[in-house]
Amino acid sequence: MTELTQTELREYFRPNFWPNTPDILTEQMQTGGRATFIHRLVLAATLSSSYGIYGPAFELQEHEPVAHGREEYDHSEKYEIRDWNLENPRSLAKLVGRVNAIRRENPALHSMDGFRFHHIDNDNMLIYSKATADRSNAVLVVVNLDPYAKQAGWTHLWLDDLGVTEHDRPFQVHDLLTDARFVWRGSGNFVELDPQKIPAHVFRIRRRVRDERDFATYQ
Fold first, then answer.
1. Structurally, how many domains does the chain consist of?
2. Who's near 116: CB < 8 A, 6+ residues apart?
3. Quick one: pLDDT at residue 212?
4. Residue 158: CATH number of its domain
5. pLDDT given for residue 168 in this prediction
6. Contact indicator for 76, 40 with CB cutoff of 8 Å
7. Does residue 28 have a pLDDT over 80?
8. What domain range includes position 131?
9. Could you tell me if 140 and 214 lie in one domain?
């Protein structure tokens, strides 16, 4: 991502990120369970302005390889006609729809510009942001890369990249996946993610402002 957004590649190369493909079933997806599918979806959809998935196999979390040590789906559509149970309650279709809605509603996710890695003091977690040039729309993503265990850490944010210019003022982070809202202050804030619930936050940054009645609000 650093190379794609901060070198000459940004002038002519636009990546298309896929959490899975018809030909590749990674070892992590074979063993990591539902949390791995979700965090790979969030990474692909928020890191790149263009992403795709190999649909029903991903939504239904197919994870059986054709043989041990192989990265190819058992019962691949390349070799047989499949009858997909798209009504399976375990399907990720609704989550995929929500992620796509977040992409549509946030201009920061429409391009590769305005990307920045931030720091978190846990190597099992990844944190990064995208923002429009005027910082009117900023999205901060935190992902737990461990599909088995709860992970937590303290952030070290580049606040100016998030449009938070008054560093001593509180601001709100609104999780667009779950609708949870938290009030943060400054660069260091505590984050915890349980992969058995959801392994990622996709935060919209909402800065504290005052309206004409002098009430503090977030926008």
1. 2
2. 128, 129, 130, 131, 158, 161
3. 46
4. 2.60.40.1180
5. 84
6. no
7. yes
8. 108-218
9. yes
